[in-house]
C-alpha cells in the first residue's frame, strides 16, 4: 500500500463529503428542495464511507503499535475526516430545521 496515496484519498473523500453537505444545506435553505438536499446528503455519506474505509485500513495496518508514521499530512487527513463526520450530523439537523420551518 502506498501510504501517501491512501492519506490523500482520505483527504479527498472527506473534503468531497464536506462540500456535498454544504451543497445540501444551501439547497434546503435557498431552494427548499429537500429531495435534492437528501440526494446530496446520500452522496456525502458515500464519500464519507469511502474515507472511513481508508481510515480503517490504516488503523488495521498500524495495529496500535506505531507501524505507520504520523506526520502532518496524516493529522490533516484525520482532521478533515472528523470535521466531515461532525458536519454530516449537523447538516442533517440544519436541513431538518429548514424543512420544519418551510411548512
From TrEMBL:
It comes from the Bacteria. Keywords: Magnesium, Metal-binding, Phosphotransferase system, Sugar transport, Transferase, Transport. The modification Phosphohistidine is found at residue 76. The keyword Magnesium applies. The keyword Magnesium applies. Its cofactor is Mg(2+). GO terms for biological process: phosphoenolpyruvate-dependent sugar phosphotransferase system. Its EC number is 2.7.1.191. One of its GO terms (molecular function) is metal ion binding. Binds 1 Mg(2+) ion per trimer. Mg(2+) binds at residue 79. InterPro entries: PTS_IIA_lac/cel (IPR003188), PTS_IIA_lac/cel_sf (IPR036542). The active site is at 76 (tele-phosphohistidine intermediate). It is an enzyme of class 2 (transferase). This is PTS system chitobiose-specific IIA component. It comes from Obesumbacterium proteus ATCC 12841.
